[in-house]
Amino acid sequence: MSKRDEILSKLDVIPSLPSVVMEIYRQVQNPDVDFGKLSEMINYEPGLAANVLKLANSAYFGFRKQVDDVRIAVARLGTKRIAELVMTVALSPMMERGVKGYDLPPGKLWEHSVTTAVGAEKLAEVLEVPRPDYTFTAGILHDVGKIVLGNFVGVDVEEIVNYAYEKQVPFNVAERELLGIDHAEAGGLLLRNWGIPEHLVEVVMGHHEPEKYNGDNVVLSLVHIADTISLISGFGIGLDGLFYKPNSDVLKKYRLTSRMVERVASYMVEKLEELKKVMFS
Amino acid sequence: MVKVVEIADMKWAVGNGNVLITYALGSCIGVVLYDPVEMVGAMLHSMLPLSRSDPDKARKNPYMYTDIGVELLLRKVFDLGATRKNLVAKVAGGANLLDDKRFFRIGEKNYMVVRKILWKNNILISGEDVGGSKPRTMVLDMSTWRVTIRSGEKEYEI
Description:
Order of helices and strands of chain B: EEEEEHHEHEEEE
Structural class of chain B: alpha+beta
Strand content of chain A: under 5%
Strand order of the largest sheet of chain B: 1-3-8-9-10
Oligomer: heterodimer
């Protein structure tokens, strides 16, 4: 069995998100989704409801007035936004754990994912491009493949880093050459297995190499840049360090300036503090 | 006592036996100043080179910016009783993405700002591990007065 096949065979044994989360996610794809039914599904899981309300009341997603009823939160934030909160809450326990192989202590992958998510949204504002409504979720999900390779496969990341260093190639290229798959593809395939919509799978798979996808994928570009800014800022930087190569065509196309990078980076610091307090205190 | 310096943060300690540590230096820069005779030390972990890019944020969170951060770090060690003749300065981090010639270069700029401000204050850097693309953890052990860098499985003194 090749290394790649061995890794692919692991995808089936990784527990999926709770079925109610997947169901909520499916429901909101439907433009005629019923608010009442959606609220009921969230309320059905007491832990989920409480955490969704906590996030909904955070300054980031925020209301001026505290809301303690899921139905009101759904009505005010809209179903798409609520689905993003549900996904964030559901993924947090998995993201919060350390990722062994990548040398990420507990909490660090969560910090990287959250800063990428808020950074991608801020970037849309800074670049003045319309922000598709799955931007936040894409940011949260983009590195899920590190959990697959680091915790479930237990790859030797040190060896991959040494290879990247010697050949001066990006870390994801070194992963592919040594394992037959990189964390971006592994993450995308896991999410596809779980039944996550294809537009999100595509962003996860392409987040280091947006050039692989034809056409204009705004979320992919936003996540690619926000991921890079989060890494250089040190959020969830693991053994792989800064062994990545930003796509210069994407940066040129959006006319990214260092001033913009700095605005997004400082925004990440502020929002991370806020969301950490909400989620873990 | 072990004190952890977070991202955009500064910590200090007085007396023998303390440890100052900062994790996850990417393009961020870690600067440590200490006086082993007076037994004081302080460490900064800053993110962005120049505070003029956003003066409002710099007021709220000065350690986010390398220029103000290093000034405050200097002020802190002198306030704690460090003397110029014993002061040791060491620097780590300032890493860059692969092939980053144009867009980010924050690591390189952070390092330039540290050098410039220390130079202006007549302080020479006596140990450093900067640039490249690897992640770094920097530790000041205030019992041995050694500064070590950890990167993956490697550990070495600077």
